[in-house]
Amino acid sequence: MRAVNVLSYSFSAIKLRKFRSALTILGVAIGITAIVALLSVTQGLQATITDDLNQGLSANSLIVMPGSSGQGGDSGFSIGIGSSSDSSGFSLYNNYTSQIVSLSPNITGAVAVMQKFGYVESDSLNRSVTIYGVDYATYAEIYGTFVAESGTIPLNPKNDTVIIGSRVSDPRQNGTRFIVPGDEINLLWLNATSFPTVNENCTVQVSGVLDTVGGFGMGGPSDTGVYIPLSSAESFFGTDACDMIIVTLTNTDKATIDSVSSLIREHFENQVLVISADAVQSVVASIISTIELFLGGIAAISLLVAGVSIMNIMIVSLIERTREIGILKALGMKSRTVLLIFLGEAVIIGLIGSIIGIIGGWVLAHGVSWVLSSGLLTGNSGGFAIKPLLTPTVVFVALIFGIGVTVVFALYPAWSASKLKPVDALRHE
Amino acid sequence: MTAIIEAVDLRKTYMMGKVPVEALRGVSFRVNAGDFIAILGPSGSGKSTLLNLIGALDKPTSGVMRIDGVNVSKLNDARLSVLRLKIGFVFQSFNLIPRLSAKANVELAMSIADMDASRCSRRAVKLLTIVGLKERMGHKPAELSGGQQQRVAIARALANNPKFLLLDEPTGNVDSKTANEIMALIYKLNKENGVSIIMVTHDQKLAGLAKRTINMFDGKIQSDVVN
User: Fold this and answer.
1) Chain A partners of B78 at a C-beta cutoff of 8 Å?
2) What is the pLDDT of residues A329-354, one digit of tens each?
3) Domain ranges across chain A
4) Using a CB-CB distance cutoff of 8 angstroms, which residues of chain B are in contact with residue A328?
């Protein structure tokens, strides 16, 4: 029997049981919807994060933080914000920058960054921020995004000068500014080094508001950051230990990054972590692919459920059609053709279900991203925009999965159908 | 004359639960091209078992069944399917596919034999015209009377130019007027179109049309007479 006749015969069987077929197709479609939505959201997330990292972490810089790097691996790290020393008691100090610069001719500069979680209080706004202590001039040299959108960034700031990120000024990112240059704000932070812990605060004057940076300020400028001069930070926080030193390099070659990283680690006797943009990105990528695998696995389970129901339906259909199979075989149809007719039904159901699922998944992914970016879930601070990515790979994977699962689960019923003996099948009522 | 069917000492034993039942106990006969044979016998005499063997739907427990010169016992599943294409089987309960129209039912038999669609269509129309169903070929089996369904089944059986037509109680499920029409059609197919016919029947009148009558009893041939 020709392929086109096999398929049209399969299709006529599907049409006969419209409601049952529709439910089966729905089962496949739900599974594929879940897979497509999850994959396109996580792929969109990865693209967004990679993009943000590229802005927050310049490719020609390294971040040096206190911390043991264990076996000296250069991709494993932990980020301990707010602790200026690791458990071993090692600390990086602000004046280590000159030692670092002298380590290699490939190092063009180093800047110390102190940071603490804290709060901003003003007449109209209370919000959590990260307080950074940096030297404005050197910091601006490293990060091109440390520029004022309004106000100025003074080269020789006063002790109570502060530069704020765009989301501190305009939390909803809609043009309504709560804090503008010239305003006085109150900064609060928790002093965790004393016991019991105490809240400390000081009043500072906003000198400038940064351009919107986007991204995660991995050492680099952040939209939710508040920047005070390094000397002020030393006196406010009561220490001259810094949280990280950012080192700039002459170039972005992997060889340069690796050699400088190991020089710095050796210099501090392996008590520091050296993080490069590259390493961060590969770690983030691996985290996301783990998330993707986990969520994809959950979605795949729903598809398996659909597969089991397909098998169930095919077995029922097989029993109902035993006589028909007997007729077909008595007319001279080969067992292989009977098998193909049943598999053909599965392929058609899988294909229709997958196509509906891909469209449904795409719609769902956009719905999810709309909810995320509207800030409905994250309160008033504005959302996190993910643009779902429906790549050809996702479409391909969805089709293969949708059709594959239906075919695999149809194999056994189809095989049993093909093995029926015509005499027995014809006797079946 | 060449034999289209040659049966030598056919035996068939079924297991009914744990009890072996001998349905055929040594049946031998020959059918030549152009024959018109009626097989008669009470129920349980082995008629249906014999019919299944002639139709290559089943294999004998022992003995030799040759259809068109081929020993059925030696065929694998796929070759058995090819052999069935040469046999026109008309079932007692018609066995049409309910969701397909009369024409599509006839076409299906030809598409199983890999005939191309336009030839299938032309031949289906021709065959349905021969059996007198030209006007109703778009109807589904449920929309046809028993006699009409029987004719569709006959048209379908003739679709692939079979070596012979095998009919199981062709007038068993229809009224007497229709039975007469079916009998006339079968007679005409044999007489005018030269189709070899083997039929199982209870109907003495129908059996009277045949050139040869085989009487079965208790799994054996009791008599085999040329009328």
Assistant:
1) 334-336
2) 999 999 999 999 999 999 999 999 99
3) 3-54+282-427, 61-250
4) 112
